UniProtKB/TrEMBL annotation:
Pfam families cross-referenced by the UniProt entry: HLH
Organism annotation: Hippocampus comes
A GO cellular component annotation in the UniProt record: nucleus
Keywords: DNA-binding, Nucleus, Transcription, Transcription regulation
One GO-annotated biological process of the protein: positive regulation of transcription by RNA polymerase II
GO molecular function: DNA-binding transcription factor activity, RNA polymerase II-specific; E-box binding; protein dimerization activity
Stored Gene3D superfamilies: Helix-loop-helix DNA-binding domain
Keyword Transcription annotated: yes
Protein name (Swiss-Prot/TrEMBL): Oligodendrocyte transcription factor 3
Compositionally biased tracts (Gly residues): 49-59
Biased composition (Low complexity): 1-14, 28-48
Ranges for region Disordered: 1-62
Domain BHLH positions: 75-129
The keyword Nucleus appears for this protein: yes
Length: 206
DNA sequence: TAGGCCATCTGGTCCT
DNA sequence: AGGACCAGATGGCCTA
């Protein structure tokens, strides 16, 4: 039941950001001992090396500066993490948008497509649409012969529709562009992907 | 319980 | 310098 369908349920736990990476017990703190160790050690090493040296009257000043730098580094890290999180959320939104326009990708009883499945399905769907479009063009060419081939994707001239004058809303300046569907009634094909012949569907997830 | 999927963190690289 | 992008690492959740 789409347990993973809500990125927000898992994602964006902003309170995470309120923990200090060095002392936190959050995911970031628990994760990647080597990573967190390296990050914290980099801070610590810098602090130790920075704080350890010198001596004399400038030491306090140096320490204060070091603390500010660590705090700034932490804030910067939070900022960067937040940006990355937002970026990934935007990516997921785009992925959801892609899922929405994919046939058979949604429905009450259909499990949400994974990202990789969504991309593969989209690719195959586009390929299938292209082949369908080519076949459609071929059939139209067969039916209307040279007439339609003259109008369809014609060489930049005014549309010469086989049935006579072009639809009024198109005007005389309408041009057919290769690869784009023609808005005229003759060229209209159902764009509902669920009308795709089932014989074509097997290529979706191949 | 293993494997798949995901979110997040993090450091590096490239670009503006 | 700062931001965007990327890939690796890690841990959590879910399902077979």
């Amino acid at each position: 039941m789409n347990s993973d369908s809500s990125p927000s349920s898992r994602a964006s736990s902003p309170d995470m950001d309120h923990h200090h990476p060095v002392s936190s017990s959050t995911q970031a703190g628990k994760m990647s001992e080597s990573k967190s160790a390296s990050s914290s050690s980099s801070v610590e090493s810098s602090s130790s090396s920075g704080g350890g040296g010198g001596g004399g009257g400038g030491n306090n000043k140096l320490k204060l500066k070091k603390q500010v730098t660590e705090e700034e580094m932490y804030q910067l890290r939070l900022k960067i993490n937040g940006r990355e999180r937002k970026r990934m959320h935007d990516l997921n939104l785009a992925m959801d948008g892609l899922r929405e326009v994919m046939p058979y990708a949604h429905g009450p009883s259909v499990r949400k497509l994974s990202k990789i499945a969504t991309l593969l399905l989209a690719r195959n769907y586009i390929l299938m649409l292209n082949s369908s479009l080519d076949e459609m063009k071929r059939l139209v060419g067969e039916i209307y012969g040279g007439q339609h081939s003259a109008f369809h994707c014609g060489g930049g001239g005014a549309a010469a529709h086989p049935g006579g004058s072009p639809p009024a809303q198109l005007g005389s300046g309408f041009q057919h562009w290769a690869g784009l569907p023609c808005p005229c009634a003759i060229c209209q094909v159902p764009n509902n992907p669920e009308h795709v012949p089932s014989s074509k569907l097997h290529i979706f997830l191949i």
